[in-house]
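Listing S7. Sequence submitted for prediction.
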Amino acid sequence: MVIGDGILTPAISVLSAVGGIKVDHPGMSNGVVVIVAVVILVGLFSLQHHGTDKVSWLFAPIVLLWFLVIGGIGIYNIWNYDSSVLRAFSPVYIYRYFKRRGKSGWTSLGGVMLSITGTEALFADLAHFPVSAVQIAFTVVVFPCLLLAYSGQAAYLMNNRDHVLDAFYRSIPDSIYWPVFIIATAAAIVASQATISATFSIIKQALALGCFPRVKVVHTSKKFLGQIYVPDINWILMVLCIAVTAGFKKQSQIGNAYGTAVVIVMLVTTLLMTLIMILVWRCHWILVLLFTGLSLVVECTYFSAVLFKVDQGGWVPLVIAAAFLLIMYVWHYGTLKRYEFEMHSKVSMAWILGLGPSLGLVRVPGIGLVYTELASGVPHIFSHFITNLPAIHSAVVFVCVKYLPVYTVPEEERFLVKRIGPKNFHMFRCVARYGYKDLHKKDDDFEKKLFDSLFLFVRLESMMEGCSDSDEYSLYGQQTGRSRDGLLNNNGNTFSSNIDSTNSSVDSIVPVRSPTHANFTVRSSGQASSQTEADELEFLNSCRDAGVVHILGNTVVRARRDARFYKKIAIDYVYAFLRKICRENSVIFNVPHESLLNVGQIFYV
């Protein structure tokens, strides 16, 4: 529904603002107004890739000026036409209204709903302003100005009842008509931007939960995590928004669709808020009951009114929501089944050890980087690879790339390396961690940093073996930046350990037995580990010089032959199509195509 809101808000906001041209030029056709609105919408969506960080400083002045203008016009109309409209604040008049109009009065609440639209997208403003600023602005500026504006239009209509279709523009004094028109158009663009940002935010959250196909997410701000741009969704929104703007013959139909989307969003938000209060905040049940009861009374009242408008344009957000819900459900189901297959099919360490150092194959020169989504264990795609091919690289590194919800990950904390199996197997695991603004480059920079971390791990592992024994010593302290630079000397030259370098990397070595025995143990084990370290570093360097191959697993999900027909359609066609059009792993990881090897396997559900 929020996605549907992101489509309908720009359509109705821009179209309503541009529609003011007809007040000054009554002979202008609706087609010209629609064309002008479409041009503005195309420009709005085309500028999304620049982000709002550079222009967001204009949003607050535009919106503030807009509310002050409509509030001032409202005061002018109340003073000039009929101040008795202020009696409408009494609830007696709404009772008399419903009693007099009956069902038609009740269904008119669907139009009244449009006066509070925009509040459902307040969470998108948190990407630009703190919570307290939003609360103060809404209470002090937005709400009073809206009351004055609508009261002023009501006062104007008391004396000009034939102007009900375009009461806002006709109630504007002639001397300030065009300035107000420009401000209204700018405010409509800002309002559209808020719902577009809200749509991007919803897509990003669904993407993080695995409920939406992989799309490119661009973060446009260094300060605010919520300021993002999703290119694919942006163009889809633009096409659908233009279709709605040009397709509907009457603006009232877009209003009905918009009201339906907004009230359902508010209703669902209230239900989810109730769960948050119970499960997360653990509020008292009386407070939860009061909040839920009062909110549902108001929202269900409006919801019952918009149900009568479903056949008059209200079906549009329902169709949009159903389409996106189907896409998200199918994608989540297929992705979940694929991940469960990979988790349950992990290769056991006993099976790896049983193959021996050669893994039962010919170990060819080179290093194989096997990409996997699993942060632990050996993926099934590896066993599938060595079962069907008679050779594997001399060194194998399982690479897991993780994107963290932080701006950047420091270089020294980016790679986490661990050995898999005995040393003579030459198998490692590397978890590469990136922030949302870090670039996983396509050039040799990624490989160079990965191998630097790998060599550093080998040296530290050798140092720990040479300086400590699990039965006799306890090690304290952490590696310092100076020792790390020393260990990375020349990306692979043998590290000559001495007392100074040992003390720089290990703060203290506490012996348990006699000092004489300890010194002898450190000296003898250190010499042996140093030789082993040199041999392994030389071996890894020769493997790297022989070539690096990036191995990507591609698990294809298919429906079983005895599956129901709707599952076959969902998996074999819908999910397969979504995987085909979404971003490939090779693009996400920026793997160079000249050294890419895809390994496929089929999984039946």
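Caption to Listing S7: primary sequence and predicted structure tokens for the chain studied. The chain has 22 helices and ten strands. The CA atoms of residues 210 and 332 lie 6 Å apart.
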